[in-house]
Amino acid sequence: MQQPVVAIDLFCGAGGLSRGLQDGGVRVVAGIDVDPACRYPYETNIGATFVEEDVTGLSAKSVEALFPADGVRVLAGCTPCQPFSTYTRTKGARKGEWELLAKFGELVDNIRPEIVTMENVPRLERHQSFSDYTRKLEDAGYRCSFQKVRCIQYGIPQMRERLVLLASTLGVIELLSPEKPNTVTVRDAIGYLPPIKAGESSPDDSVHKASTLASQNMKRIRRSKPGGTWRDWEPDLRAPCHRKQSGQTYPGVYGRMEWDAPAPTITTQFHGYGNGRFGHPEQHRAISLREGALLQTFPEDYAFVPEGMSVPVSSIARMIGNAVPVRLGEVIGRSIMAHLRNVR
Ligand SMILES: C[S@@+](CC[C@H](N)C(=O)[O-])C[C@H]1O[C@@H](n2cnc3c(N)ncnc32)[C@H](O)[C@@H]1O
Questions:
Q1: What is the pLDDT of residue 63?
Q2: What is the pLDDT of residues 237-246, one digit of tens each?
Q3: Percent of the chain having pLDDT more than 70?
Q4: Where in the chain is the domain with CATH 3.90.120.10?
Q5: CATH of domain 5-176+325-343
Q6: Is 81 one of the catalytic residues?
Q7: How far is the CA of 9 from the centre of ligand 1 (A)?
Q8: What is the pLDDT, as a whole number, of residue 234?
Q9: Distance 156 CA to ligand 1 centre (A)
Q10: Chain centroid offset of residue 21 CA
Q11: Which one of 104, 111, 133, 309 has the minimum C-beta count within 10 Å?
């Protein structure tokens, strides 16, 4: 009988990657994250142990103890991408976050799982910490591959681009090539949801909830065209920074999505109309939390808070925007399973 394939997900968040790995055939046994808000969605949807811990302080022994005695072991570690984003690169990364990648490397060294996977922003590839990390993996006997992924090629309705790393002690491992030729659009993903107004939630789904809009922003969104920018508005509606010459280079805020195109990258701020092109294609509001989750390819019934509990918008938006799209996680899971079929 073949051994099961079991994963521990470090920095597991609400479980985007874990859910995808499960869909791809990997058994996820535990997720570790410092954010207590992740416990409910993780345990409820993944059905695996959630360990609320700061990874920095974790010993290899305590992580190893979470793996069952038998099985091909997968260690996944999507370190937070903030220190690698354009924004934090220019503003300066918070102390300690760069070290999380090194800590993940240290855990891999000591645990020696057969498979390692990681997802992050593409520009990480150009950073010294990443080359140090892959070199360390190779020195330790892992075969490594990494590539920039355009999520739309994998049927994810979003312009998101990510870097995916796979490593194995068992032989060459590669991410499976895209199969889906058709682009999935915003309409495909969210077009069927019932309409709601800004500040409201659907009576059938408390997570289908949209942020309120101040009256100035309500005037602005009424003038906004799908795929357009604030340049479509009358000058008196423009923000003071956009009236100045220096503000002319930021067209990507206060936009509406287009029905028949993929969404922009869903960030942790997608619930705010002024934070990017996060306006609904035709309703006068930012997209709802459920719409953000669907654009991240979470299943439509993914639970983020217990029923009847009030829905904390920014905390749920953070978990959704931070997630590995579930469908990308599934591709990673299927790639691991295909690799094991080849080498076993
Ligand atoms: C990019 S998100 C991971 C998303 C997750 N893989 C998913 O697919 O849903 C990074 C996560 O790291 C967590 N985190 C940040 N610093 C941490 C630390 N020192 N220890 C444990 N978790 C941490 C954050 O709370 C966040 O949930």
A1: 97
A2: 777 666 665 5
A3: 90
A4: 186-322
A5: 3.40.50.150
A6: yes
A7: 10
A8: 76
A9: 21
A10: 13
A11: 309
d(CA 78, ligand 1 centre) in Å: 7
User: Is residue 24's pLDDT more than 90?
Assistant: yes
CB contact set of 57 (below 8 Å; sequence gap of 6+):
none
Probe residue for ligand 1, chosen from 322, 327, 328, 330 as the CB with the greatest number of ligand atoms within 8 Å: 322
Domain 186-322 has CATH 1.10.3210.10: no
Length reported for the chain: 344
Task: Give the residue carrying structure tokens 């990510």.
Answer: 162
- Which pLDDT value is given to residue 15? 98
| pTM of the complete model | 0.93
Q: Where in the chain is the domain with CATH 3.40.50.150?
A: 5-176+325-343
Residue nearest ligand 1's atom 7 by CA? 323
Whether pLDDT at 86 is above 80 = no
- How far, in Å, CA of 111 to CA of 331, rounded? 24
Average pLDDT, the chain: 91
Most informative mutation of 10, 34, 74, 315 for ligand 1 (most atoms within 8 A of CB):
34
The whole-angstrom separation of Cα 145 and Cα 168 is 9
What pLDDT score does 111 carry?
Answer: 97
Q: Of residues 78, 81, 144, 241, which has the active-site annotation?
A: 81
How far apart are alpha carbons 311 and 63 in whole angstroms? 32
Q: Name the pairing type of β-strands 49-52 and 115-120.
A: unpaired
What is the average per-residue pLDDT within 146-164? 96
3-state secondary structure of 51: strand
Q: Which residues line ligand 1 (CB under 6 A)?
A: 11-17, 33-35, 38, 54-56, 78, 80-81, 100, 322-324
